[in-house]
Amino acid sequence: MSEGDSIGESVHGKPSVVYRFFSRLGQIYQSWLDKSTPYTAVRWIVTLGLSFIYIIRVYLLQGWYIVTYALGIYHLNLFIAFLSPKVDPSLMEDSDDGPSLPTRQNEEFRPFIRRLPEFKFWHSATKGILVAMACTFFEAFNVPVFWPILVMYFIMLFCITMKRQIKHMIKYRYIPFTHGKRKYKGKEDVGKTFAS
């Protein structure tokens, strides 16, 4: 390779202005994401606010139903991944290698590990809403459809998918929400002191 052949480098071997700009922009974006990590409720409130703005926009414009349907399917896919365990118990049924979900009360505590962590779920859902919002500014994405059929199809798809997911949860006995390790009470203190 000759000098300047690698991506983002100019002829003199230094990073190009465009590459440095987008690199710096990516660093700033990542910094804001890192700062928002501990504020779960605030992040989700902002995302719900964006969803509300998007719904109002689609309602007022009376269009972009295909984009809204695609956004709904995308969010459903993210939600199913959020509810699913990282290691599918149906695949681990026959083999004993690897971690498994506890099935009895006296087993060691193992927290539920999701296939899609909460932060990535939030991040992907928010990006999806912003992309769908951007699509509403282009008439090319306003495909004329009879929207009640899309709504009915989405409701059917949601019910069938959630029924399958709930059956999976019941069959392999896991709950996708853990609140920490169970605490046990010791013997009650009667207040007597021991003399030595």
TrEMBL record:
<dbReference type="GO" id="GO:0006621">
    <property type="term" value="P:protein retention in ER lumen"/>
</dbReference>
<keyword id="KW-0472">Membrane</keyword>
<feature type="transmembrane region" description="Helical">
    <location>
        <begin position="66"/>
        <end position="83"/>
    </location>
</feature>
<protein>
    <recommendedName>
        <fullName>Protein RER1</fullName>
    </recommendedName>
</protein>
<comment type="function">
    <text>Involved in the retrieval of endoplasmic reticulum membrane proteins from the early Golgi compartment.</text>
</comment>
<keyword id="KW-0812">Transmembrane</keyword>
<dbReference type="Pfam" id="PF03248">
    <property type="entry name" value="Rer1"/>
</dbReference>
<dbReference type="InterPro" id="IPR004932">
    <property type="entry name" value="Rer1"/>
</dbReference>
<feature type="transmembrane region" description="Helical">
    <location>
        <begin position="41"/>
        <end position="60"/>
    </location>
</feature>
<dbReference type="GO" id="GO:0000139">
    <property type="term" value="C:Golgi membrane"/>
</dbReference>
<dbReference type="GO" id="GO:0006890">
    <property type="term" value="P:retrograde vesicle-mediated transport, Golgi to endoplasmic reticulum"/>
</dbReference>
<keyword id="KW-1133">Transmembrane helix</keyword>
<dbReference type="GO" id="GO:0005783">
    <property type="term" value="C:endoplasmic reticulum"/>
</dbReference>
<feature type="transmembrane region" description="Helical">
    <location>
        <begin position="145"/>
        <end position="162"/>
    </location>
</feature>
<comment type="similarity">
    <text>Belongs to the RER1 family.</text>
</comment>
